[in-house]
Amino acid sequence: MERKECNEILKFSTEVILQVFVKINKRVEELKSNDEISALEILQNEVIPKYEKLYKGLKTEIKDDEEIDIEKFENIKKYIYDIMRENSFTEEFIRTQMKLREKFQGESGAEVVKKLFEYEKKQMENTKYNLLDKVNKVLDREDKLAMDLKNAIQEEEQIECIYKLQPVREEYRALEEKVLRVQKNIDDLKKKLDSEWTYEIYGTISKDEMLNTYNQTMKK
């Protein structure tokens, strides 16, 4: 088995896994729309990580000075063809997708979605920064009121400080919840960018088609 053939197996196998992710992504959306939480959790916690690990392992290339493990590549090929059968993928279908991916490389839907994720992440990070600025201001107000309470001698002064502290602490809790939600969104977007498949699944359609689909979706 030559190095070129090994790299072709890896490239072919990567496309197979990306097409599996296309199906998984559609299934995720279906489960979300039907509020099937249990099935969604199984998919996200058990199925997706399995294919993510496989996808990352396949995204390599055999170097000129690297020794070829023929048995390893035969096993990869067999395993990938088993996955193809499970998902009703033909070799013709996979090779067609590979040609489309090559055709649209640099100008595909993958670039559009990746840039969208990056933009959303940047916006979320700006939102988090603004929220944290508000949190710091609220904490300063809380510290001042807490000091006033500590220094208050008269009961009336103490009650007034406590009365003023309550809404400030409620405001802090509300901001804290918002920060946590925004941070979760940032973490989710970072994970999408790191995993790559979340945008690479759109690499077989043109940039224009992806933008058109996105614009149509936004109008709904």
- What would you call the shape? elongated
Low-confidence stretches: none
The portion of residues assigned to helices is over 70%
User: In percent, how much strand structure appears in the residues?
Assistant: under 5%
Head-to-tail CA distance between termini:
52 Å
Structural class call reads mainly alpha
DSSP summary, beta strand count: 0
- Overall tally of structural domains: 2
Average pLDDT confidence is 92
- One letter per element, helices H and strands E, the order comes to HHHHHHHH
Coiled coil: 139-192
Keywords: Coiled coil
Q: Which descriptors apply to this entry?
A:
220 residues, mainly alpha, 2 domains, 8 helices, 84% helix, coiled coil
Short description:
By secondary structure, the chain is mostly helical.
What does this structure look like?
Keywords: Coiled coil. Residues 139-192 form a coiled coil. The protein is mostly helical and 220 residues long. It is built from 8 helices and no strands. It has helices at 3-33, 37-58, 70-86, 91-103, 109-151, 155-195, 197-200, 207-219. Helix 5 packs across helix 8. The chain is elongated. The mean pLDDT is 92.
